[in-house]
Please model this.
Amino acid sequence: MAGSQYENQLALQFKAARVMNYDPNESDPKGIALHRRSYSRELKLSAIKWSLNTYIKGEDGDLDVLISRYAAAQRLGITGPMLKA
Model:
């Protein structure tokens, strides 16, 4: 994983929450989950706070740009709509 320690920690927390909430009885025979995942409020708010304070280096001396919601979600391994503030 590339990124800050905080980013890596958030991504690992989301990954661990997916594994904890997985129920094989609610999946199809191919193992694809058919239920919605749920995450704690604190974890969701941490992800939103992180995405609103993460900037990507600008090109050729331009100012740094706030990371897009979808890029932040991809880096954390979650969906883009989850980061809607």
